[in-house]
Amino acid sequence: MENTTQPLLEEYQLGALKLKNRVVMASLTRGRATNTGLVPTPLMAEYYAQRASAGLILSEGTWVNPQSIGFINVPGIYTREQVEGWKLVTRAVHDHGGLIFSQLGHIGAASHHDHLNGELPAGPSAINPQTKSFTPNGFKDTLKPREMSLAEIRQTVQDYKQAAENALEAGFDGVEVHAQVGMLIPQFLSLATNQRTDEYGGSIENRARIVFDILDAIIEVWDSTRVAIKFTPVALSHVGVMTPDAQTIPMFQYLCNKLSDYNLAYLHIVAPSEDLTGTTVEALQENYFDHFRNHYSGRLMANLGFTRETANAILSEGTADLVSFGAPFIANPDLVERFRSDLPLSAGNPDLYYTGGENGYTDYPRAILGEAHGRQEVPAE
Fold first, then answer.
1. pLDDT tens figures, 326-343
2. I need a surface site. Which of 125, 294, 313, 338 has the fewest CB within 10 A?
């Protein structure tokens, strides 16, 4: 495939931002904020800078307040020290010609009291999501949480707004709201974990209310074209009780239709990793991303399992505007260059995904073409 025929390598205008290509680095939890303050480190700045050839980098999911923590060694963006740490990251990315959004997250009921000084986590209802939390003492089963009060919901919305303000101060180019399955926002969307009877429960409109409360608050800080949101509409396993139900498809139709009025940077959608045949969401099995394209009028970013060939295909078809890559960016800091030259991809070491310091983090080599169009690898800079 010639470079000029690769939509992946085309420049793309994202609001006021010009992306140098349509290859996006998806958020990847890497567990390198190994300090008590969960502060981004110079090593993290090096890691992100190595991958700055992406058209856009999305930071790892980042906690918006202390109550949102649910995984060890993941950085936050709610303290002064964390903001200063993120400045190292954004400066390094910008110095290497890249752009970076902050992904703002809250894990809600899927946390554990080991993260919260012995306090119970809180969610939309007092229902155990039946997943696991990665605590300082290893993976532990989640617990029955407290039901969030209305005051706590409103404070959480304000915490997202403050995190967005912190991201602006830290030098990010925009923010993405982390609403993937298992997090607080989808806990409100799911019938399995939201049995409230107030304005945040019951109907589709009520359960989705928190999405728009958070976006409305963030858009007071950022222009809407610098704000995005990421969903995993369909997940069948590894998410406890939060599996698709009879209202999943109408819920996401409602979300897409209403989000179309927001003029966001993009809507980020994760594909299913399993066959949907025989499930309540079987209708999404064929032409999955078309369903969202048909209900959402803005920019669409597609994620999960894409290769160079399939990503170019979905962009050529016009079904998506951008494609994000997760695991390939772990072992291939020069993923864009490898796509450009049609070079094979290196494999990552899963044992070092969440631990290991620089090992399995900043030490993956770059591939370069030799004089005779051979291939060799050199350490990442």
1. 999 999 999 999 999 999
2. 294
